[in-house]
# Entry
Amino acid sequence: MTDLIHAEVGDVITESHLHLDREALVRYAGASGDFNPIHYRDDIAAEVDLPGVLAHGMLTMGAAVQPVVELLGDPGRVVEYQVKFTRPVVVDPVAGADVKITATIGATADENGIGRIDLAVEYDGKAVLGKAQVRTRFAV
# Structure
C-alpha cells in the first residue's frame, strides 16, 4: 500500500482506466433501480437532445472512487466523498467508453490523520467529474 502519511500535495498515488459498455449500464440499472431509458436507448437519448446513451452519473462516481478504496484496503477509511457532475459519459453501442482516473494528494493528513485525495476523472480528454474529493483516514 502507498504510504499516504509521507505523501505530499500533488503526488499521484494511483491511476486507473475504466471501460464502460452497454452491458455495464444494464447491470447497473438493475442493481440501482434506475431504469431511465437515456441509459440504454439511443432513440430516447436522441429525443431529448443527448449525444447518445449516457452512463449513470452515480455509476461513474462510484467507479471513480474504487481505485482509492482498493489502495486504502478498507472502504471504512473513506470519511467523505463528493463530486460535481460536469459532463456526461456517452457510451457508444460498439466501442463503449473509456474513463481515466488519476488520484493525487489534495491535502496532507491533519492532526486526526485525515487527508484529502483529489480525483481527476476524464472521458474523451475532458473532465466528467469536478471537485471530486475523497476525505480519508491516511493512517489506520
About this structure: The helical segments are 22-32, 42-47, 57-72. The first helix runs from residue 22 to 32.
